[in-house]
Design goal:
481 residues, 16 helices, alpha/beta
Length: 481
């Protein structure tokens, strides 16, 4: 029932998106050719095309737009998705889909270029496409906003709400209950929990309504539609007994395996010749996703190296003149994906062989090892720019967890749970932790928390968001010394 409910919600969002897009396309035609508002600014010089020609593209937009929106994750119904993330997701989707549509019409025109009766039918105004992109972005955002407000109003009135009971008030049961409460957009209402162990904590203020033997009694009294069984592994016998006791009742039953304590990133279901296998540490950065991220790194990294080459030359000259004896560049061993070491490039900002006597140590405020130029370079993060070389070479990515030095990795992995999980992806010049202020000599635990969030929720849009935040916030300059 949960999956069916989610599919129904997705279908409604698809319908709203298609209607919004089609209306935006028709409105763009009307504004360009039937309204004096646009014509007064950009006059129509080639005559007014038939309206039927523009109607021909509606089947294409109705099919293409949901596909592009889907691949941007806009049909993953997440309550926590920010409106900014959704806006940029819609913007990129509309730009890509519009480019594909315009490219398809150009291809048809070239293909039928020797058939004058066919080719002109596929000629479309670029002004219409420009208007359409603006209108469609606005219409899609407005349509989704209106749909959410309507659904929230309906569920607040109690229409089509699924009432849920959770069996198990331990850590797993509380996690399930809290997650269901957080996703009210799917229309679920958790009435409470049942458990045999007195004194187990409550989740989100939800009461424990009885024991496991009283499940059906509670379910009938509370008009429950779905039962989530979330018992720990050590209560396996109780789980089997409970399933047997409710299996013949008119209740939608869901069993949640007690794997939360073992899953380090995300769990995924695999198939081994018909045998279900649960993988506990899947990461989204695999296959096509990895290739797309690498392509972005190559294109942007190379472009930035070219654009910043005059700045590189200027900084190199300053280091030669004011940085004391030593090389311009400094290469330091760091740990990246799969725990493999690499040499990270930086502009030298400290005295040559600064750690000769002390060994690896953290940089600190007013660090006496810094050169005159190095103080300025580290304050504005300019010493980090040569890492673009590592990005182009494939050692690093533009966005990812910051790489750490081997001695510190050995130290942290012994005392910080899941520390090595951050090495499941390539290290980055900037990252989710850095743009949120967790950089340098700050809490390692908080940094890991943000790194794991990035790995679990990676998307191309999240990378773009982090790059934009880096542009405005820097690499966490508050702790740059």
């Amino acid at each position: 029932m949960v999956k069916f409910q989610a599919r129904v919600m997705t279908a409604v969002f698809v319908l709203v998106d298609v209607v919004s897009t089609d209306l935006a396309w028709l409105l763009a035609y009307w504004l360009r050719f039937q309204s004096d508002l646009v014509a007064s600014v950009v006059p129509v010089t080639k005559g007014v095309p038939d309206f039927d020609r523009y109607l021909l593209l509606l089947p294409l937009t109705s099919l293409l737009w949901p596909v592009v929106l889907y691949f941007h994750g806009l049909y993953q119904l997440k309550r926590g998705r920010s409106r900014i993330d959704e806006f940029f997701g819609i913007l990129f989707s509309v730009l890509i889909a519009s480019a594909v549509t315009l490219g398809a019409t150009l291809y048809v025109r070239v293909y039928y270029r020797y058939q004058p009766e066919v080719a002109p039918r596929w000629e479309y105004s670029q002004a219409v496409f420009g208007l359409f992109i603006v209108l469609d972005v606005l219409a899609l955002n407005a349509g989704r906003w209106a749909l959410r407000r309507y659904l929230e109003h309906m569920w607040a009135q109690g229409y089509n709400v699924k009432r849920v009971l959770v069996a198990g008030a331990g850590e797993l049961g509380q996690t399930v209950a809290e997650t269901l409460v957080a996703h009210r957009e799917l229309g679920y209402h958790v009435v409470g929990l049942v458990d045999d162990t007195p004194g187990r904590g409550h989740a989100e203020g939800l009461p424990v309504l009885g024991s496991l033997d009283q499940v059906m009694e509670v379910a009938l009294a509370r008009d429950v539609d779905q039962l989530y069984i979330a018992l720990p592994l050590e209560e396996h016998a109780k789980l089997l007994k409970l399933i047997k006791s409710v299996s013949n009742e008119c209740l939608d039953i869901k069993v949640v395996p007690d794997l939360v304590q073992y899953a380090t990133i995300k769990a995924a279901l695999e198939d081994l010749d018909g045998i279900p296998i649960i993988s506990l540490n899947e990461v989204p950065l695999r296959g096509w996703n990895s290739m797309v991220k690498r392509l972005m790194d190559m294109v942007l990294g190379t472009a930035l190296l070219v654009l910043l080459s005059p700045l590189f030359a200027f900084i190199a000259a300053l280091i030669r003149l004011k940085g004391g004896p030593g090389p311009v560049f400094y290469r330091q061993e760091r740990i990246s994906v799969d725990g493999k070491p690499f040499l990270m490039w930086k502009f030298r900002s400290m005295q040559d062989e600064a750690e000769k006597d002390t060994g690896p140590v953290w940089a600190s405020a007013e660090d006496p090892r810094r050169t005159t130029v190095g103080v300025w370079l580290r304050k504005y993060n300019l010493d980090e720019f040569p890492q673009l070389i590592n990005v182009v070479l494939g050692d690093m990515s533009l966005v990812g967890p910051r790489p750490e030095r081997p001695p510190f990795v050995r130290q942290f992995k012994e005392r910080i749970p899941q520390y090595m999980v951050r090495h499941r992806v390539k290290s980055g010049i900037t990252g989710w932790a850095q743009v949120n202020g967790w950089r340098g000599n700050t809490s390692i635990e908080k940094r890991i928390e943000y790194d794991l969030y990035y790995i679990e929720n990676w998307s191309l849009l999240l990378d773009v968001k982090i790059l934009i935040m880096t542009l405005f916030r820097g690499f966490g300059q508050k702790h740059a010394y």
